[in-house]
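> call design_seq(struct)
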């Protein structure tokens, strides 16, 4: 905020307040910040040809444990898988890289409700449920 804007909002502001809060670059646009995204994914750069052949497929199992089961389209696995991708826990969400399975389990009490996400190589079995 510029000095003039501060004075307009706070007409009785002290000089110390103005020095501490006035931004000399307030009238200029901020420099763009580079955010890592899909463009930095080596699979995108290679168009997915070689990388998909060398990587082992990954299985993501999302288990929603609820007192009242949800409709088939309500677990919102898309958001969960995108979060895994953004945090670089999985390389991507294309079918060549990741197999996604969504399950629901009914539980007796609200305190038992949870969403469990299991990430494992495709050829390994889950030690908890055997799938």
């Amino acid at each position: 905020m510029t000095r003039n804007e501060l004075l307009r909002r706070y007409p009785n502001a002290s000089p110390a307040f103005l020095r501490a809060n006035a931004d000399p670059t307030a009238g200029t646009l901020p420099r763009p910040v580079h955010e890592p995204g899909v463009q930095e994914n080596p699979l995108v750069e290679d168009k997915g040809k070689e990388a998909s052949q060398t990587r082992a497929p990954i299985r993501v199992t999302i288990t929603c444990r609820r007192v009242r089961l949800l409709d088939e389209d309500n677990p919102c696995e898309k958001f969960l898988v995108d979060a895994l991708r953004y945090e670089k826990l999985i390389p991507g969400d294309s079918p060549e890289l990741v197999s996604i399975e969504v399950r629901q389990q009914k539980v007796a009490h609200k305190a038992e409700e949870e969403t469990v996400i299991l990430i494992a190589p495709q050829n390994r079995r889950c030690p908890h449920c055997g799938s």
